[in-house]
Each structure stands twice: as C-alpha cells, then as structure tokens.
What we know:
The chain has helices spanning 32-36, 89-92; strands spanning 22-24, 54-58, 61-70, 79-86.
Amino acid sequence: MDENNAVGSSQSPFLSVPVEIIVSVGKAHPTVRDLLSLGRDSIISLDRRVDDPVDLYIGDKLIARGELTDTSAGGAESLAVRITEIVNIQDNL
C-alpha cells in the first residue's frame, strides 16, 4: 500500500473533517392517530429488543453495528457504542 494513501496518513486534510454518526436503536411504525395521542411518559414500542445490536449510519449508509454500553464515571450518566461489526463500506458506495 502506498504510504500517502494510508488511512492513518497525516498528509490528507480530509482526515480531520468531522462527520455525524447516527446510532439507530430501532424503528416504530405508529399511525398519525397514535402520534397525536402521545404525551409525557408515553411509550413507543420498537422493532428490537434491549440486547439487540444497534446500527451506526453516516447519512443513510450503514457503516457498523455495535452494542450500547454505559460509560458513566463519577455519577454522570453517559452512553457509548462498542463496535462489534464493521460493514464493508465499499459495498454501500
């Protein structure tokens, strides 16, 4: 592999461009009537279970799958995603 084309190369200005990753925990398909009746403490059932993997997207492209994990430290609650599978991004282009 050419060193100038390596992913870790510090030569490329594109490596510092921030991207937004969307973590999808599931989908719901409520009716408009159901949406209009939502209020505080309403529950929307998703198509996945709590221990199912989550999907990571950049835009509409699936890039990876992972599991939610708690990274709380010092009492501050925080979530993170542990990557369990990298999708072949070349196939999605």
